[in-house]
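== Sequence and structure of one protein ==
=== Format: two labelled lines per protein ===
==== Data for this protein ====
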Amino acid sequence: MIKKISQISFAIIMVLMLASCKNTKQKLQEFVVKYNATASSFKAENVKLTTARGYINDNKIELRFETTLEQNETNKKAAAVTFPKLLKDMFDKNQIPQELVTEGIQFDAYYLADDNTVFVKEVITKESITGLLKD
């Protein structure tokens, strides 16, 4: 009797442990939902809106940072310097979890002008993250 109870208890514990483990696709979905839910409180210089979109089949997340800046060469050069710093800061604050990148999720991050044209695009992968995070 005790042996049967132990076996059933063990089986229930194993099922619960397996159910609580999240796969990468679930983590991707959760990140996108959480990111968009907190996006209205996001603060960064010149950024008026940020959004995330997940592509489960491609293991990719697209981050968009819409700015108040006009599309011109001066702002484009400034964005090329400030945007990587913004992304590094977000990784440092775990606003973008490095764990997702190490699990194979690619981040395509866009820094956009006020007319939604691209100032800078950063593609963050396992291979490129070390260059972004170095001081």
Notes: Strands lie at 47-55, 60-67, 106-112, 118-124. DSSP finds five helices and four strands in the chain.
